[in-house]
Design goal:
cell membrane; mainly alpha; about 220 residues; 12 helices
Length: about 220
């Protein structure tokens, strides 16, 4: 667990360096490693409770940036985009079926170190407010993107509807962010200020959640008055 936390911390600080270290040490295995990271973030609901700030958005941006570099030939954007789209969709499917088969049992459990029902409750509210489009919007929201497929399974959302929106969300999430990194990563201002850009991506990804928290607190204070 400590090594995982250190990896996430180091990645947030210098994602390009961490990814290049992986490429230098493991070569083309980088594809497998990246696939497993995206799959875990979208497919293993327990990850949203153990490590709510997984580096999904920053990871994809950095992948695009590194793929644009001329001094390496291990990471190709034309391969990584469809690969990570598949990882995200498969992850959604796992979470959907876990929610469908075991959702009642999981929700019936008491809060513990690996299960925080408040996260599920907030994601459920988000889903109820936004409907099916929440599956797409949630792709760009850490924690929520992991829980929404689970909620869809628990509520028995029609699978064809779910997989359609899941596919659209994966295409937009992986495609837009990776191509953004691929384009911007060719500019020196981005390379020299990568930490700030990564922080900005994380902040933007969490902005909908931050706004919801602020609104909820505002409404609570207003009600108490």
């Amino acid at each position: 667990m400590q090594s995982i936390i250190e990896f996430i911390t180091n990645f947030v600080q210098r994602p390009d360096k961490v990814l290049m270290d992986i490429i230098n040490n493991y070569g083309y295995w980088i594809y497998v490693i990246l696939f497993l990271i995206i799959f875990a973030e979208t497919g293993l609901i327990i990850m949203s409770f153990l490590m709510p700030f997984l580096p999904g958005d920053a990871l994809i941006f950095s992948i695009g940036m590194i793929a644009a570099s001329d001094d390496q030939n291990h990471l190709h954007i034309e391969y990584i985009i469809p690969l990570l789209m598949v990882a995200a969709i498969l992850g959604d499917n796992v979470n959907y079926y876990v929610g469908r088969k075991f959702g009642g049992w999981i929700l019936g459990r008491k809060d513990s170190w690996f299960l925080k029902k408040k996260h599920i409750e907030k994601a459920t509210e988000f889903f109820n407010e936004n409907g099916k489009k929440a599956i797409i919007i949630a792709r760009f929201m850490p924690v929520v993107r992991t829980i929404i497929p689970f909620i869809c399974g628990v509520t028995n959302l029609n699978y064809r509807t779910f997989i359609t929106y899941s596919f659209i969300g994966a295409v937009l999430w992986v495609g837009v962010i990776s191509l953004l990194g691929h384009t911007l990563g060719q500019f020196d201002i981005v390379k020299n200020n990568l930490e700030k850009f990564i922080f900005g991506i994380i902040l933007l990804a969490n902005m909908p959640l931050i706004i919801r928290i602020v609104k909820a607190q505002f409404n609570k204070n207003k009600t108490e008055e």
